[in-house]
Amino acid sequence: MAAGTGARSTSPSRAAEAGLAIQGRGEPVIDQAARAHYQRRITELEQELEEAQERGDGEATAAAREELDALITALTAAYGLAGRPRRSPDPVERARKAVTRRIRNAMRRITRAHPRLGQHLAASIRTGEFCSYQPERAILWSVQANTG
Fold first, then answer.
1. Are 123 and 115 in contact (CB under 8 A)?
2. pLDDT higher than 60, residue 135
3. Which of 6, 21, 114, 132 is deepest in the core (most CB within 10 A)?
4. Considering the chain, what is the average pLDDT of its residues?
5. With left for phi above 0 and alpha for psi between -120 and 50, is residue 128 left, alpha or beta?
6. Three-state SS for 111?
7. pLDDT of amino acid 148
8. Nearest CA to 93 among 128, 63, 55?
């Protein structure tokens, strides 16, 4: 965390100008080539299923239906509302959330052990795209060794 008494937060546009903004989002779960491959295979399976049913081949019918259901389930999971592809989790966002959780957890433990310090930290620590320590006024810290 950065120490300082400057502005309370860094705006996203200022962060981007400084080259510090979190870049992008996760990649699409499925790309166009894979989607096309799935669609071709679904068409093939529909034909195989129809032919197996006409022949009365229950085993081939069941196998084709099982694979067809699996492909349709995979495609359904890869697309969200209005047919937009879902995106994989962004590793930077996952890391940011993990750091925020750890900071919040540490602050809860500190508050239980030292309520006044916990209140100060709650008012001074900012999490989000960037984490920072920004006290309302300059503080001179004095640390004493615990010989107890």
1. no
2. yes
3. 132
4. 79
5. left
6. helix
7. 63
8. 128
pTM: 0.43
Contact (CB, 8 A) for 1 and 130:
no
Residue written as tokens 């001179």? 140
Structure token pair of residue 63: 């196998």
The residue ranges of every structural domain in the chain are 7-23+90-133, 32-83
Amino acid at residue number 47: Q
Dist. CA 71–CA 36, nearest whole Å: 12
Amino acid identity of residue 74, one-letter, is A
Q: What tokens appear for 84 in the block? A: 């937009």
What's the CA gap between 65 and 59, in Å, rounded?
10
Is residue 103 within 8 Å of 125, Cβ to Cβ?
yes
Strand order in the sheet with 125-126: 2-3, 132-133, 125-126
For 44-69, write each residue's pLDDT tens digit.
999 999 999 999 999 999 999 999 99
Structure tokens at 102: 């750890």
Q: Determine the angle formed by the axes of helices 32-55 and 58-78, rounding to 10 degrees.
A: 160
pLDDT at 62: 92
